[in-house]
Amino acid sequence: MSINFKEALGVSADALQLRAERTRVLAANIANESTPGYTARDLDFASVMQARMDADDGAPTLSEDGPLFRVPYHPSADGNTVEIGVEQAAFSQNASDFQTSLTFINMKLRGLNKAITGQ
Questions:
Q1: Whole-prediction pTM
Q2: Does the keyword rRNA-binding apply (predicted)?
Q3: From start to end of 46-106, where are the E strands?
Q4: Are 85 and 29 within 8 A, CB to CB?
């Protein structure tokens, strides 16, 4: 009997992938903190995850919901909307959420391993 990892891991693998993509978006924001005219972006995790769960094949592209542009609390004169404190806080929270998703996947894989080996 074969194991369908998509079913075995549920939405955890999708959540991990979306957290990784959000990490890339937030890192780009931080890297462009001093770039004039750069517009900070972010992913709405809940809506992208919901779209993924609602999709027929379970894997829509991010272009469907795409990165959202962030509205700054204090706009800068050069048009850059990156606020480093906001970005660092979002990056830190996302890293924590990524670690939680990874831990959950590891627990599921350990459970599968125990079931396979008869422990």
A1: 0.76
A2: no
A3: 68-69
A4: no
